Amino acid sequence: MSRSLNGWLVAAAGACALLGAGCLSVDLNRLLNPRLEEVTLREPRGWTSKRLLVVDISGLISTSPGGLLSIGRRCTPDGVRAVLDQARRDARIKAVLLRIDSPGGGVTATDMIAHEIQSFRQATHLPVYAMIMSAGCSGGYYIATSAERIWAHPSAVTGSIGVIATFPQVQGLTGKIGVSEIVIKSGDMKDMGSPLRDMEPAERAVLQAMIDEFYGLFLDRIVAARPQFPSRDALRPLADGRVFTAAQAVAAGLVDHVGYLDDAITAVLRTAGLDDARVVTYAYGPNGNATPYSPSAGAPGLPTSINVRLLDLQALSPEAGFHYLWLPGAAREN
To answer: Comparing 217 with 25, which gets the higher pLDDT?
Structure first.
């Protein structure tokens, strides 16, 4: 790490001490590399100006880029929109491949990204394929249905169609250590989901109704995108949250093809009427050793962002709210 970057990180740590629990967030990639640059992932066999753009849908899907304590990569509507806007301005882009490796994420962030991809397809009329790498679950699969065709790596996991919201309960622990909370509220449900008390049946019913509505939106998206499923009822037996291998997903009608990344690249080029093209992505910074597997958007080797709330333990888990998210190991309440 360069001396200048070390100095910047020290300054950021100092800001943390001054601001305490403030909410300032600094995106290092955009600070140090403020413009998206084209990075070649695969050279064409001969000379051509035509490009195939790889767009990463990787990590937790969220409206927030995360903080220093955030685990793994994140995919945001802002990041995807920036890439698609640049692609709209480049007439050399002739096809797009969504490279998906995500367990899903927030309901709203997922729907925003899917909407951006659909808008891009309608505006450009370019072929857009999806390639599920190791995981394209829940929100990851939701976004994949925005593509014209869906490929999956032979060892990929996909599906997990559904919605989840988790509400940790810590009243037993707080009682043991003598911590309590006084809540003054304008209505009975204003603190619905509080970890410091049990959830009332009426509160559970309200949240379940919201879950059911978001679940219906998920089903409707798949029905609109996949002719194999003429109705919600036809899809519902597969949409109980279970995950599928790539071969199982093809047999079920959720995925079109099983293959490798190069196979998906060849297929989308064929749909675009091309024998070959330069395979590229956009990144905030150069990468001279890039391959078709190299990450896009973020400059290699840098943390995505620094969040001044360094001691915010919520950064270690998904945000509160409703999620199209594969969350293996989540407790089942009977």
So the answer is: 217
CATH homologous superfamily of 23-164+229-325 equals 2-enoyl-CoA Hydratase; Chain A, domain 1 (3.90.226.10)
The residue among 99, 95, 78 whose CA lies nearest residue 36 is 78
Q: Which long-range contacts (CB under 8 A, 24 or more apart) does 227-230 make?
A: 228/253, 229/253
Q: Which amino acid is at 131?
A: M
Indicate the range of 14-28, 220-234, 264-278, 287-301 predicted with least confidence: 14-28
- Secondary structure (3-state) at 260: coil
Kind and range of the H or E element at 100?
strand 93-102
Task: State pLDDT tens for residues 223-233.
Answer: 999 999 999 99
Task: Tell me the average pLDDT across 93-116.
Answer: 97
- The closest of 15, 16, 32 to 302, measured between CA atoms, is 32
Strands 37-42 and 278-283, bridge-based pairing:
antiparallel
Q: Domain-by-domain residue ranges, the chain?
A: 23-164+229-325
**How far, in Å, CA of 143 to CA of 128, rounded?**
12
CB-based contact 316:22 (threshold 8 Å): no
Task: Measure the CA–CA gap between 317 and 315, rounded to whole angstroms.
Answer: 6
pTM score of the predicted model: 0.82
**Cβ(113)–Cβ(143) below 8 Å:** yes
Residue 93, amino acid: I
Pick the closest to residue 64 from 250, 255, 298, 305 (CA basis).
Answer: 305
